[in-house]
Amino acid sequence: MSIADNLLKYKNEIEGDGVKLVAVSKNHPVEAVKEAYDAGQRVFGENLVQEMVEKQSQLPDDIEWHLIGHLQTNKVKYIAPFVKLIESVDSFKLLKEINKQAAKHNRVIDCLLQIYIADEETKFGLGFDEAIELLRSEEFEALKNVRIVGLMGIATNTAQEKQTSAEFNELKVLFDGIKVSYFRKDDFFKEISMGMSADYKLAIEEGSTMVRIGSNIFGKRVIKHWKNTES
Hints:
The protein is of the alpha/beta class. 41% of the residues lie in helices and 17% in strands. It contains eleven helices and eight strands. An eight-stranded parallel sheet has the order 7-6-5-4-3-2-1-8. Strand 6, helix 8 and strand 7 (191-193) form a beta-alpha-beta unit. The longest helix is centred in the last third of the chain and has 22 residues, at 161-182. Pyridoxal 5'-phosphate (PLP)-binding protein, which is involved in PLP homeostasis. Keywords: Pyridoxal phosphate.
């Protein structure tokens, strides 16, 4: 099947449930992104800043770019002019830098707090208590160029379905509590980004509003030079 065929299969299934599909285009060429774009996809996720910047400069302006990988503070300035959503905010230090760079471009950048829900030490993310401490701090209140629109989480990679569902459920429960406590009157706080190719159905069952699917749309990844240059 072509990229367009794969994409439309997921769009019809996922978007029919009111869930946003983020096509993860990392390590795939501009031509592949363009094929998905021509098939109607507008939301693309990238892990590496350099790769996103290079693709953004070659593709249509109405693409909604999501940074979904671990983001270093010294790389924020490169994506601040155009990024639509940073899904992987895993520290207050990073959030402050996003705010600083957004202000330089007279923008408010939407962000998700990445929450640590997996039973794996290799994953990034804020603990539940850390996220709440961030949101209740006066320093956070002072940030005017970022907007927290929801939460993101990545389940344990090798978990059984029962554990995966439980991890997603924990994120949904946290989201509901934060919504009531800090964003009760804010319609923009509405996103729960969880679920990838292997577990997106479980994620949607547990309340995901946004799923990230890559290889099942684009095929096997071609490892490009970005892997070697991003530090």
